Amino acid sequence: MSFSGKYQLESQENFESFMKAVGLPDELIQKGKDIKSISEIEEDGDNFKVTVTTGSKILVNTFKIGEEAELETLTGEKAKAVVQRDGNKLTVSLKGIASVTELVDGNTIVNTMTLGSIVYKRTSKRM
Questions:
Q1: Rounded (5°) CA angle 18-24-26
Q2: Got the DSSP string for the chain?
Q3: What tens-digit pLDDT sequence spans the chain (127 residues)?
C-alpha cells in the first residue's frame, strides 16, 4: 500500500499533555487543539515528502528511508534522524520522541508519538 495522498485529522488523544511535555507554549496548545490538520504524503520509492498544515503553520519534511535526514520537530527545531520502514509502518526517533506512522488500511493513517510515559495518538482519514 502506498502512503501517498491527503489525510485530514479525525481524532487525537493526549494532545495537550504531550504538547506541554515537548515544550509548546500554552497559547499555541489552545490554538492548535481544535484544528483539523491536513497531512499530505508524497511517496516515490524510498523517497518521501510529508507536508502537515495546521492552520497557518506548515511543516515540511523530506527524507529517504534508511538514510539520515534533517527533520523539523513539532516545536520547529531541526534534528537529524533516520526514518525506517517496516511494511505499512514508518518509524523514527527524534529528540527523545518515538514516532510510528501506520497505514492501517487504504484510507486511515494512525500516528503514535511517545515521550516518556505520554502517548499522543492521531488518526487521520484520506480526503
A1: 95
A2: ----EEEEEEEEESHHHHHHHHT--HHHHHHHTT---EEEEEEETTEEEEEEEETTEEEEEEEETTSEEEEE-TTS-EEEEE-EEETTEEEEEETTEEEEEEEEETTEEEEEEEETTEEEEEEEEE-
A3: 899 999 999 999 999 999 999 988 898 888 888 888 999 999 999 999 999 998 888 999 999 999 999 999 888 889 999 999 999 999 999 989 999 999 999 899 999 999 999 999 999 999 9
| Measured distance CA(61)–CA(30) in Å, rounded | 24
